[in-house]
Amino acid sequence: MIVEETRPLLQRSERLITRTPLPWDQFWIVLFLQLSDPLALQTLAPFIPQLVRDIGVTHGDESLVGHYVGILHLSYYTAQALTVLHWSQLSDHIGRRPLILTALFAIAVSMFSFGLSRTFVGLVVSRVICGVFNGSNGVVKSIVMDITDATNLPKAYGYMPLPWMIGNAIGPLIGGSLSRPADRFPAIFGQSELLKTYPYLLPCAVPAIFTSVAWLVTYFRFRESVPTSTPLWKLIKGFFLPQSYAKSLTPIESSHAGLPDAWEADLEEVSSKPLPLRAVLTPKVLSMAANCSTMALLHIAVTSILPIFYATPIELGGLSLDPPRIGAILAVSGLANGASQLFFFSLLHDRFGAGTIHTFGVCAGIPFVILFPAINYLARAHGMGLAVWLSVGVQLTLLPNLVMCYSCLALYISAAAPNRASLGTTNGIAQLLIAGGRIIGPALAASIFSYSMQEGHDAWLVYYFLMAIAFLAVGTSLLLPRNPSQWEVRQ
Known about the structure:
The protein is mainly alpha-helical. It has helices spanning 2-15, 24-44, 48-54, 65-94, 96-116, 120-134, 137-147, 153-159, 161-178, 181-184, 186-189, 193-197, 201-221, 232-240, 242-248, 260-271, 277-280, 283-311, 323-352, 354-363, 365-382, 386-416, 423-453, 461-477.
């Protein structure tokens, strides 16, 4: 009886988990660094089409504006996708801080260069440089995992959308109001020959100056989060002399043979060394990577279809909305996504677990896709009435569930890493697949949508495509355990 009466008390005590407070002395710097990415992206968005027209690359053909704008976006995301894994791997060896400082400096230079460019080639080169060094954005996410543990990481990722909310809100205001300042504000900037010659320099200067401030904050306040690092010259030597480099890192010395204590010390040393890429690709990491690729492709595909669906005429399968209404809907949706993550993710995680939230999030993509043709049917049958707007609202309320999947997968990334020293490489693999989805998803979904809207083609073709991705994402979600802690056994 004593055992039976004591067991519930023991079980309750096991469920009591001491939560580590967030390290705000370093975490606020991470949030500050995260703001530079959306600020730079959203500041350029309002004036890039007009900039393409002004430099004359389209030769007056309005139909080519979207083509050249797409090239600028593609050059940025392609450069980011090609470098994000290499930045993350390098940060495991030489530390996070030197890479962040290098990237911030290069991004500031690229933003000034974009504002000073007078040719389309100059614009592309500037965006490629920005994309190459913004591949280090994955390093910032690795820092979050470095400075937290399993008890406070969900809470930390609840705050991560906050910089994106701020950047998405003020970035378009900066880009829209400060472009061509000599024409907009002649009393203030009318005498500036520099701003007349380079009418888009001022809005580009704002994120460039902010990034410079972030460089100063990082240099003076941020502490390195990687406990051990390898000098860069040693890595370069290892590249040219791999045998000597491997020998210098060999953990088991002949003098330690037969000594158990030395063996344990060597194993501990191995666990503190970053592993090569092939060794990082464990079954856990591959399961996490499959979920990152399918979930990101689903999210990016459906969100890229939204504005196209809203702008397409009703008779062709859309809603015939004008740009101001589309912008208002997307702005409200963005705020709702960030607010739900900020206020509810940590609570939902504690109640249901990361695996349940992730599976529910990708399952929400199925009704989200079904509502596209349903909303168009209501618009055709009853016009843009209350039923249509209620259906649009229901569809958008499903989107925060899908957005929360990013935070869930971040927990699995941290748990799947073979050892703590390889966390950056593991995160880099995930960010590489997510960046690949940003390249493939919008282009493929938009192309299939346009093809399906043409006469003689199946109007539902794009929705078949999106449903296939949704079911694939649901299937891969079943590869994950309910709780990332089940993966916490380090190799």
